[in-house]
Structures are given as structure tokens and as C-alpha cells.
Amino acid sequence: SRLPTRMAFEMPPAKTCIALVITFIVCAYLLIAQPHFEASPRPDWTGYVVCMIIVGAVMLMIHNFNAAFCMVGINILFVLFGIIKPAEFFAGFSSDAVIATGTLCVFADAVFQTSILDIVMGPFLPTKAALWEARLRVMFLGFVFSSFLNNTPVMAILLPVTEAYCARAGLPLRSMLMPLNFAVFLGANNSLIGSSSNLTTLQVTKDIIGAAYGTPEWKAPNFFSPLLLGLPVGVAGLIFMTLFTTTLLPSNEPGKKASFVEKDESDELEIPDRAECLQVPGQPMLSYGYEYLVTFKPIAPLIGQLLRESGLDKKDNTIALKRVITAKGAFSKPQEWINHVIAADDLLIFSCTAVGVANLRKRRGIQMRNDNVEALGEERRLRCLMEAVVGASSSWVGQTVTSREMQNVFGGKAAVVAVRQVSHESGVSRKSEKAYLLRTDGTAASDDEESGPAPAQREFRIEVGSLLLLEAYAGFAKSAPKQHIPMVSVVPGSKPPRWYTGKDKMRMLAVALVLCSVVFTAAANILPLSISGFLAIFFMVFLKIMTPGEAIGAIEGPTLLIIASSGGVGKAIGHTGVGEWLGDRFVEMSFETFTGLLIWFYILMSLLGCFLNNNAQIVLVMPICYSAAMKVGVGFRPFMYLCMMMATISSFNIPISRATNLMIVNRGPYSFADFAIYGMALQLFLMPIFLVLLYVFEVHNLWDYFNDVCAPYGSLC
């Protein structure tokens, strides 16, 4: 082979360049200036080691290394260098904040599984509301719910509800999802359990303040103490997003991806006629192309509504309504079903991707019509959707999808929802494609009909490469018969909804009561949050809302590791004098003024929020805030709330900063510039409001004033 005469220079990614520049500046400063950490009796080299280890960890986190791994790693290095003792590192693992955060993760997952928030939201989302009013309603609900639940499950619950609402009301999704996402972040600042970063802040504050924490000298925050600042800042944010979203996020952006169905409006599938669908309404269907055909039946509260007002006929990138089969006839075009009133005996046939089927099932008012799935029984919480490919060596090839051999192999662990083929054996175009009912062994399904083979055009046999959409128990992906289906993949977020039966409604009521009990006992200081959380978990497992395995799986291990590691990092920064030295630098930049410190730390947290985990920000910045506050002679409490609230607000700027941002990027769709413009505009708007509140509270000692006002109510206030 011939070598190129000139090597092309490849520019490294921007984040790598930024990381290298920061590292170079820090190293050069330490080598040239050689700062002396006067606050520590230890040698200066320990301070240099702490600085370089922390800078190295920040660089790794900028490059998407796991934040928990980095935080634990730097603690281990601190122990190896003798900067902290092993006991100081491991002390964080027994803290109340770690236990409370773990229990709240489990509880939030239980709320998500029961979909109780869907029922609560229904009456608040009218279809005839104006765009600004609809946006305000959705944001308000997210703002309230996130005060008591972690933001990720809240967004996971509200996303499909909001998407269905926008489809039903004909509202642009782009103007709704980003404001909802930011409202959820703002709502997390209303209580101590709104976010894991709030509990991390309390733990770091306890480590910094020491024995004085919780005494009259330094009173610990109560359950709703963040509400004093979180409510006015949150309301200001909601007003801003209500008024300016349409301007900053226009909904008619060019280049938006078209729906897969909008490309082929004229390419209609030939779906089985009304008579056949009514004879075998619960049988799976076959389609040729890239989507599955799935049958649903309407249930309350959609029965009696006009189909056009239900939002079911709105197309998106994963779902499209293909046919409506009623007692009077079948409709295959929107102009035919536009004025149809949904009835209980209707059948709705949708063309969906696998993810589209999962999302469609989460919409209230419709239920999948499939006899095979219903035969699996009631343990819905243990099942999910999977896609499987039939292999060339399978004996299923040439048989029907409901053959006895296939059913024996599945053994009641899986059921076929739909089947599709990517290409037709005759090579016909998509305009000529047909859909088939998968009847048992190709024979007539009704006993009233004459026995014998089904019509030729309705016969279908499994072929090599057939794609089966299955509902199966979670372990089926590993235990699936590889000789028949060598490739099986789980459809993410596809657990069946649990709101149809009477037991489901009882579980929803139980979860609501448990949520209120946990909040009340923690707020009234009757039981520690960790204890009440454990009691709630045992209660929900007993009621079969979730299994013990699901409860353990819901715990966010990385978040707990970061909280547990916070004490070691804070002690290392304090022991070596690095925190006090960095505090002096911020005091100098702020001209030894309280206002200047607030501004600088607001900017610092905003920048770090673009790259670092919110808990990692708190662990690294709060010791520096404490040293700077002591130098200027002001209280530490405003800086505690600044770090607590900025850990969530700082996630507005870029889409990769938080998991919930990534959840909405493709649904909007939103670009990097959308987050930068909209997020930075919101942060700049909130900056003076937030900082003025902190300044007024500290200068006029409103902390003590509100403590006196709330004294009659105890820990509830």
C-alpha cells in the first residue's frame, strides 16, 4: 500500500481542547507562582496534589467519565497520599443523606409504574386552551410534582402525557417540552426531597459546619425551607417561559424531521376487511415494511369523544392511525373518521415502530386488543416488549405464528403482538403491500364458519427473517430459544401500563397515601426520611406495586456514591488549605464584597453545570464558598442555598448536561443552539432575582424572621 505524502491534521474535540487548556494553566500557575497554603500545617505539596487530582477528575468528567467513579477515585488517591484518613472517606457511606436518597429513588419509580400522575393531570389539560395557557398548565404540573419526586422519573411520567395532550389539542410539541423540562428543575428547589442534590447539599453542609450543625447557633434547614427562595424564583421562571417561549423557540423551524407516514401518504396498506377483523379481533397482524400493525380498543375516558379531539389520529415519527373499524363500517382515511364518535366496540389499527407501540400503550383511553397477550395472565409488572428475529435454522419456518410448536416453546413466557417483514418475496412496491391476520394454522377462526383453509390472500407462514414483536417476561431475553430466534432485543420503556383493573386503581390510591405519609412524617419531623422511606418501600413491595428486585434496581448507585464521597473531598480541601486559598482568590475578584461573591459563584456554578454532575458541583464548590464567606464576614447560609439551587438551574445551557435534557432533544426536536439561547436567556433572567433574594435575606436576617414565623408549626415550615 502507498503511504500518504502529507498527513492530515485532525483537530481534537472542543471539550478536549478546553480540558487541555485548563490543565495547562493550572500546572503553569502551580509551577511559576508556587502558592503557599498558609491555612494548613501540612507541606504545600499536599495542596498541589489536591489541586491536580481535582483538576484531573474534572477533566475526566468533562469527557463523560462516570462522575461517581471519579469521586471515589480521588478519595482513594487522597487516602494513599495520606491527606485524609480511611475513616474520613468511609464515614459518608453511613450518612442519612445516602439512605434517604436511595429510598426516594425507589419511591419515585413506584409512582412512575402506577402512573398515578396521569389521572391527576387529566382534568388540568383542556384541549381548547390557548398555547400560552396550555404551556403554563403543563409547566405548573411539572413544577408541583417535582417538589416531591426526583426530576428524572417526573419527566418520564410527564413526557408521554404531554405528547398525547399536544396531539389531542393540536399544539406544537417543540413549544412545550423544553419549558416543561426546565419547570421540573425549578420545582426541585421547593423542598429538601425535590432533588438528590438538595440532600447532597445538606450532607456537605453538615461536614463543613461540624458539631454546630442543627444547633441554635446554626439551625438546620427544615423540609420546606428551600421554598422561601425556590417559590419566587420558580414563579419568575414560569412567567418568563410562558411569555417568551414562542419567541425564543419558534415552532416552525425548517428541517424538522417528517413523520415516516407523511412521506408515503398515498401508499396505503391493504388491511383485512371489517368482517375478518371482527371475527378474529385479538389475533396479531402481519405487515410488510418497517412498521408493525397493532389493534387497540377504546376504553374510558375516550369513549363518547370525537376521534379528532382524542388526538389518536395525529401522526408522529413512530405512530400513525391506519384504520378505524366500527359497527357501521370501516374508515381508512382521515376525512372519513374526522367526525366519528368513539364507541366501546370500535377497533383502532395503528402502524407503529416497536417504540411507538410502547408509547401508544401509555396513552389513557385505549388498550391493546390481543388474545395472546391477555392469555399471559396478570403479572404485567414483570413483562415488557421485545423484538425477535426468526433464524434460518428454525423449525418455525413455514408454520403459522399461532402454531402449537411455537406456543409450546414459548411456554406461557411470551406472546406475539405483531409480525412484520422488511421486504416482500415478490418484490412488489410499497403501494401494493398488504396486511394479514395471522389465523391459527391458516384455518377459519370462527366455529360458525365452514372448516377448511382460510382465503389464500390471508394465509401467512413464518419466514426466515420474520420480525416478531413479543410481550414477554423480563428473563425471556436471556432464555429465548436461540435455535428459533437467535436475536432478541428489549424495547426500552415498554412495561405494560397498570391502570385498567380494580386492583390497579387500589394500588394508585395506596401509592398516593404512602406519598402523603412520607412527606408529612418527614416534614413534621415525626420520623427521619430514611426510616419513613424504608417503611414505604416494604409497604409497596407487600402490595405488589413493585418486586424486591425492581426496588433494588431503582436505586441510583452513582448518585449515592457521589454523596458518600463528598465528606472525603471536603476534608481534603480543608486539611490542605486549598479551600481557604481558593476562597481568598474569589474574595479578591469580588473586591471583598458580598454581592461580588454571589455573582462569581453564580457564574462558576453555571459554567460547571455544562460539564459536571450536579452533585459533583456541590461537593467541589461548597468548601470554597465557606472559606470565601468567612473571609468576607458573611453567613454561609446564602451560599448553601446558592449551591443547592444552582446545581439544578445550571443544567439549562446544553442538552448533554442532564438525562432529562437528552429525553427531549429528539422529541422537540431541539438543537444545541436552542438549549444555549433559551437556557442562557432563562438563567440571565433569574440571576438578578435570585441574587437579590439571597442578599436581602442575609443582610436583613430574614432567616431568623421566618424561623420565628414558622416556630408554631414546628418542622413543617
From TrEMBL:
What processes in GO biological process is this protein linked to? transmembrane transport
Q: Where is the Citrate transporter-like domain?
A: 58-634
GO cellular component assignments: plasma membrane
User: Know the name of this protein?
Assistant: Citrate transporter-like domain-containing protein
Q: Which Pfam families match?
A: CitMHS
To which species is this protein native? Eutreptiella gymnastica
Where in or outside the cell it occurs: the entry states: Membrane
How is the protein disposed in the membrane? Multi-pass membrane protein
**Keyword list, A-Z:** Membrane, Repeat, Transmembrane, Transmembrane helix, Transport
Q: Which residues cross the membrane?
A: 12-33, 45-62, 67-85, 97-117, 138-162, 182-202, 223-244, 337-360, 508-541, 599-626, 638-656, 676-697
Q: Which domain of life is it from?
A: Eukaryota
